[in-house]
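#struct-pred
JK: can someone run the complex with histidyl-adenosine monophosphate? inputs below
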Amino acid sequence: MAFNIPRGTQDILPGESERWQYVENIARETCHAYHYQEIRTPIFEHTELFSRGVGESTDIVQKEMYTFADKKGRSLTLRPEGTASAVRSFVENKLFANPIQPTKLYYIGPMFRYERPQTGRYRQFYQFGIEAIGSSDPAIDAEVIALAMSVYRKAGLKNIKLVINSLGDKTSRAAHREALIRHFEPRIDEFCGDCQKRLQQNPLRILDCKKDRDHELLKSAPSILEYLNEESKAYFSKVQQYLTDIGISFEVDPNLVRGLDYYNHTAFEIMSDAEGFGAITTLAGGGRYDGLTEEIGGPKAPGIGFAMSIERLLAALDAENVKLAIDQGIDCYIVTLGEKAKDFSVSLLYKLREEGLSAEIDYECKKMKGQFKAADRLNAKYIAILGDDELSQNKINVKDAETGEQQEVKLDEFIRYMKAHTER
Ligand code: HAM
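RT: done, structure tokens with the ligand placed:
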């Protein structure tokens, strides 16, 4: 019986995995510069964390979670996103007691959602995300957005667009909620069953409905921006001012609502504008969640963050034809002729590697021609040729693959020679 990979998942094979590492390194370096530190939380959590944290009325909780009972009957869920786990850990490990706040965290790892797979949408996907928990200064909102934009810019993307909105504070949201109910209630029977439930539960979700997205009432729905109170308005304009000061351009879209319940104040998404990028253009999404720590039983600690999928970042790079500067080659390939030379090369290879050079040999005892071919395939910068004869004369031939120049080197000088020639 042959096995296939589960629907909506991918194998990242050698050749492709280097691209992942490349962009993940950019993410890590950028986090280092902005002083965000890595957090690693479990892949699964108690289901309740997500139903409370992400929100009962969201599509994620209603339809998309991989939930299972363990052998003791506890309900566990493969994490559909990283924020709830980061905030749970912040509360559980009392990171709020650290004298330096906000606590600035980042994560890179797989998330799981039972969605309909298509280009850019998977059931297992990798998110790089950050969370700054413990500050409600609008400057941190700008910092979080700047970090996301910086990663895209460093990776080489040019056609990206930042869209921001404010969902306001509790009072503004309550006023907007009432307005939405008044707007939709008279004609709610024209909407799908989900939206009929959403009307009382969380009418904001109607604006996000995939089935009813073309209904005329969506276009005329009251905008949150009209319901922001003075404080929320002031907060939002301060965020915009900081973004402008930093030099980040943005659009305000009053219809941007996001698909998770924990947001208030700033919400944002970053889209690809690249031609031919496909139907799904959102690369990253995030926002402020000032009530989340309390929702899951912790002290008040306002937070903001974002997450981006690595898959979509790589797809956007493809769409823009960006070639990543990945060095796929190895430093040295040892070609051997004869039994003794091969045996000797085993320890030579070890020494090269211990000095930090990437080196390879043929274990399959191919003919010399085959070994040279392999060196070429592996993009070796240098080819070291050792036969039994050379070995007895304590020397080795080193060929520069690019220039074709060949040099005879004393065997006991070889490691030093290679180190000097491959210094990065
Ligand atoms: P989200 O908008 O649900 O937010 O997801 C963030 C990003 O994850 C999306 O913009 C997209 O790049 C990626 N993503 C989501 N679902 C899929 C999928 N099925 N396949 C591929 N990529 C996907 C969150 O997850 C929030 N936790 C973000 C956040 C952090 N807000 C505050 N802090």
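RT: quick notes.
The longest strand covers residues 103-112.
The two ends are 48 Å apart (CA to CA).
JK: thanks, will look after standup
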